[in-house]
Amino acid sequence: MKLIGLLGGMSAASTLIYYRQMCEITRRRLGGLHSPELLIRSLDFSAVEALQASGQWEEAGALLNAEAKALEQAGAQFIVLATNTMHKVADRMMSGLGIPLLHIAQATAARIRASGLQRPGLIATAFTMEQSFYVDSLKASGLAPLVPEQRDRADVHRIIYDELCKDITTSSSRSRFEAVARALVAQGADCMILGCTEVGMLLDAGNVSVPVFDTTLIHCEAAIDLALSS
After folding, report:
1. Is 83 a catalytic residue?
2. Span 149-192, pLDDT tens digits
3. In 3-state terms, what secondary structure has residue 11?
4. Mean pLDDT value across the chain
5. I need a labelling partner for 96 at 20 to 30 A (CA). Which of 54, 76, 146, 150 fits?
6. Are 59 and 52 in contact (CB under 8 A)?
7. Do 197 and 215 form a contact (C-beta atoms < 8 A)?
8. Boundaries of every domain in the chain
């Protein structure tokens, strides 16, 4: 089994989900008392969020680069970045490393393509929905992503940072996310990307009318696939 370097803390709620899912997937695959071999570096999200909010992406990339290098030096054989938004700095983060990054958007796009779908709605942070780094990755994979209108994007972003990142879920926020998903389906979305690693706390196949692609779960499954590959 390959040693996974999990770079998390963005947010802590997301990293908890990653660890739990990777353990459950490994146990299902191998049975018995098996669990994944992991190195986990969990950052203080407050510092990372401050860099995001002030647009200091180069500084954020340099911070993650140092952490990714530390994971490699400790023996990690590939990197899993437990956040969608910070894949904006993926190239900077992996500069100078000799091990690969398992990219969350690429793993998600591959799963959507394999399902024969093409027009995913994207529900994520404003950074992920509005900037090109993520949407362009999906388009490069042959998909035609749709993003919510401006007011919906603002509400989703606020709920993610003010509630989900703090492990807070409310029925009103769940209803708001459901409304955003319905609006994307009305625009022509044939599936839904839960494009922030916390969005699955409010949306799933039970309350979205089209197939759901939870990036966190897809990323975890892809990580275990790679860890168990020869």
Report:
1. yes
2. 999 999 999 999 999 999 999 999 999 999 999 999 999 999 99
3. coil
4. 97
5. 54
6. no
7. yes
8. 4-103+218-228, 104-214
- Which is catalytic among the residues 26, 83, 85, 215? 83
Structure tokens at 75: 């023996």
- The pLDDT confidence band at residue 230, using thresholds 50, 70 and 90, is confident
* Catalytic one of 196, 197, 215, 216: 196
Q: Which CATH class is domain 4-103+218-228?
A: alpha beta
Among the CATH numbers 3.40.50.150, 3.40.50.1370, 3.40.50.1860, 3.30.2350.10, which is that of 104-214?
Answer: 3.40.50.1860
Helical H runs in the chain? 12-30, 45-53, 57-73, 90-93, 104-114, 126-130, 132-140, 150-162, 171-187, 215-228
**Residue 180 near residue 123 (C-beta atoms within 8 A):** yes
pLDDT tens-digit readout, 53-98: 999 999 999 999 999 999 999 999 999 999 999 999 999 999 999 9
Name every residue whose Cβ is closer than 8 Å to that of residue 75 and which is 6 or more positions away in sequence.
Answer: 3, 39
